[in-house]
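Hi support team,

I'm opening this ticket because the web form for multi-chain structure prediction keeps timing out on my end. I have pasted the exact lines I submitted so you can reproduce it. The total is 900 residues across two entries, so I didn't expect it to be a heavy job. Is there a limit I'm missing, or should I split the entries? Thanks in advance, R.K.
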Amino acid sequence: MRAIPTLKISISGVRGVIGDSLTPALLTRFAQAFGTYVSSGTIVIGRDTRTSGEMVRQAVVAGLLSSGCRVIDLDVCPVPTVQLIVRERHAHGGIAITASHNPAEWNALKFINSDGLFLSLGQARELLDIYHQGDYTKVTGSVMRGVETFTGALDAHINAIINEVGALPKTSRRLRVALDSCNGAGSVIAPGLIETLGAEVVAINTTPDGSFPRGAEPIPENLTGLCRLVKASGADAGFAQDMDADRLAVVAETGEPIGEEYTLALATRYVLSRTPGPVVTNLSTSWLMDDVTRMFECPLHRSKIGEVNVTEMMQQVGAVIGGEGNGGVIYPRINYCRDSQVGIALILRLLAETGRTVTELVSGLPRYKMIKEKLECPSHRIGEVLKMIRSQYADHPVDLRDGVKVSFEDGWLHVRGSNTEPIIRLIAEAGDETKARQMLNGAAERIVRLLK
Amino acid sequence: MKPLKIGITGVRGIVGETFTPELAIAFAQAFAAYLDGGRILVCRDTRPSGPMVRAAVMAGLLAAGCEAVDLDVCPTPAMQLAVKHLNARGGISITAGHNPSQWNALKFVRDDGLYLNAAQAEELLDIFHQGEFAKAKWNEIQTRIETVDAIDHHIGVLKSVFDTAAIRARKLTVAVDCCNGACAKLSPRWLEELGCTVLAINDDIAAPFPHNPEPKRETMAQLRAVVKAGRADIGFAHDADGERLGIVTETGEPLSEEMTLALATEIKLSRTPGTVVTNISTTQAIEKIASRHNSNVIRTPVGAAYISEAILDHNAVIGGEGNGAVVIPEVHATSDSAATIGLMLEQIAKTGERVSELAANLPRYAMLKHYVEVAPNLLFSVLNDVRRDAEKTDAGDIDLSDGIRLSWMDGWLHIRASNTESMIRVIAEAEDEGRANDLMAWAKDRLR
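Hello R.K., no limit was hit. The queue was backed up. Here is the completed structure from your submission:
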């Protein structure tokens, strides 16, 4: 039996459990490694609302100052705000203190480069090398720099969105919006943003105290409170954010969660109606994206899983919008990162300009059923599993860039190993549940048999 | 030789070399474990590494589940008073006191506002070396650090001890050099409360130290000029964290740091005879002053904690060290330069005496100070050799309680390892310069 992992040091940063392996000493060493990596430059830091955030922030500040960095501290703010301020202030990098959708006992550091992007694979490897070598830059006390507390970051973020997306047209009916920020980083920005856009906001879970009032992921089973609020308040739409405010889910005016796959689809529909152009999403995102891009005769590119892979491809193809099916909207005119605030603005513009309800907009798109499963699998046997799947489906079109994705006439199946846990992920999508289940079960049974 | 000293006075080193954030974090965790959590106050002086060390200390305290309270830039004595006032379990002062800017250190204070004594410091070091620290779970961790001002309370305590009305009535002009240290937040305010015309220099906590933060004659040139130009009644020089005090007379004469305690002792005993506590490295003028006032002197090993304990044990009326640190027990049993200022101004105000007159009235000895840097691994053997030779001298008394102290009728010599740096300190004092030189020469011969 394998010990339950409490620490993960990888190319996506360092994640761990507070009170266990994610100690202040480890965090300060990582911050020193990053300070060394950016040659003692200016670093922007921000955090989500987790209870351990203050401790982690102190450890990070100590490490950054020790390595000669100047620190711009945004305190509690969404990750995309950190990324935006890195660019606006011409900083050399950023550190976002957040474990996204992980449970409350986790925290993590995510590293951002001078372009406001998460470190690329190569950059992350360089950082890890410095961390492991352990020989960090240390500046003497007399040249040590300090911490600037920057309180204007949230306003700067709101202004950037208003400038690029625009406030809601004055002529249209004033929209009422229900909001659930999960007591996370969105709590400190989303209500203000919605009001600045020109809509009315009714909110739950906007106390940024790090308590988890619901499951952190904005998936339908976690949104019962928001659904009730939408109905009770007669809101035109409900928006649910995760802890670090990068993912977004939408609830229709009927109080029905429409599913997080529709978030990117609706945002894309709005952007393409104004500025047609290439769109990027990952291999595991719904066929909805194919339908939406086809409506506007725009090309859709699919990348490997992982936000960095999506943003890199977006830059390559000059995408006008991109993102992930988990509710991650990436709008490059603001930021090359998932930003639920931008998602809210784009979808509210869509509602205001079309004058249609969320339900009407959703019914204008096909309905698919996506199902997800995970199977335990020792890390060293993942390759074997993927090889088997590939040969089983050899007579169908397959994409091998990230695990195996098999396309059928009426659906698709994606099998891949997790980057973070010893599991195999299976995703299937089809027009109805039976068909999707059939595809997924077929693969799952074969995998279980192989691993026996 | 790596400049790092982990000892009974805390942990001290050069930032950028040995004094790393990991070290500060580990010490904060060890201290939290030692106190078994609870409320811990943190203050710092103004050296540029202060914010880094503060962040590291906070991370360590929070990770251990403490309630950390930030006093920001604040003199150590203000933190020590606040520990009692706020019912804290302890405190950490981030300051290397009189050391140059590139140094920093952690000093540990217990719940009565006094430094850990030697035995307690040993226990803390054991926890640090064992390296197993308590870790708070996510739902036990403090989510915000409160910032509290400790200066108001400090001034309130000072006002309750000294006769502020008498001082105010005198409308004194006082020059003060805060060395851009923590006292810049306390001293000018305290002097204004006392109705003084304040001529403050180097009172910008954001600026670097204008000179070494050690109130010695050689660092008081600027203050002397201000005293003279401003016709001040007295000039005071602070260290970085508010423990040591240097004095310039109204004529512009800088007094040796040994004279601060001597002057304070003379003032105090002239009003209230009693016991004086000082360490074995401080001028014998203290005995002379005590004998004038029918008082006695208790000598301790070198270190602030020894002084505090002896003051409490002997119910002393005053205490301190020859480095300019003075303890006024009515305020608290630890050195406090703002309290020392209160005592001096109260005397000037009440008697109308001039500082130069008070100083001229003090017994004076020739004192020489010297230090030799010695590698840490050689300290013991070097001192041992000196000890063997010392036994062959004609000294009337040999005191081995802290290094080697030899005394004769007409002078004394003290050779000891520094508590804070890897060096051997030598102090020789005699009635005349020639004899002091001889004593110093004997020591230097043996430290070659």
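A quick check on our side: Chain A touches chain B through 41 residues (CB under 8 Å). Let us know if the file doesn't open in your viewer.
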